[in-house]
Amino acid sequence: MKYFLLILVSVCCVFHQCQSQTKSSNPKDTTKMNKENNPVYSRTDTSRVKISNEEWQKVLPEDVYYIARQKGTERPWTSKYENFKEVGTYYCAACGNPLFKSDTKFESGCGWPSFYEPISKTSIIYKEDKSHGMVRTEVECGRCEAHLGHVFDDGPPPTGLRYCINGVILDFEKAQKAEKQYNDENKK
């Protein structure tokens, strides 16, 4: 009974923490705004990005800045990518760094897009996070150090990991080969 109460209190604290740090999602297309105004956004440049938070605030939409630079959390089950099934690649919305392939995305039931493996070893930075009375592993973008979310060891095979990522900080590009195949099949 003691363990049940401990788990219940922990879950309540996590949900309270998520709600207290959350700003409402902005329905406008932040990806388009981000690319137009952001001189560091590139899906091909792998060089590290080091600019001040003041500069980030000028080029990122408010909701992206809140997650990326202030380590915010979006409300669970509000991300456009939570139930998203398209085939393609997920990128950092702050800098364009490739983060995850869609075939590593899975339904975890946690309320945020979840992946079991990053696209490469250098696409993610891991940091210890002792905030809110918990010890977790924070994940950041390997190129610009934007806060992405956290990684947990309760994911599916083959890695056993669950990268729980704020959807606001993700950008997506549909796989062109799959899109072409779909379009060709629908012309018949």
Which terms summarize this structure?
188 residues, alpha+beta, Metal Binding Protein, Guanine Nucleotide Exchange Factor, Chain A, 6-stranded antiparallel beta sheet, 3-stranded antiparallel beta sheet, 5 helices, 28% helix
What does this structure look like?
There is one protein chain. This protein is an alpha+beta fold and 188 residues long. It has one domain (2-187): Peptide methionine sulfoxide reductase (Metal Binding Protein, Guanine Nucleotide Exchange Factor, Chain A). 28% of the residues lie in helices and 21% in strands. The chain has helices at 2-20, 30-37, 53-59, 62-68, 176-187, and strands at residues 88-92, 98-101, 105-106, 114-115, 124-129, 136-141, 147-152, 162-165, 170-174. Strands 3-4-8-7-6-5 form a six-stranded antiparallel beta sheet, with no helix packed on it. It has a three-stranded antiparallel beta sheet with strand order 2-1-9. Strand 3 (105-106) and strand 4 (114-115) form a beta hairpin. The longest helix is centred in the first third of the chain and has 19 residues, at 2-20.
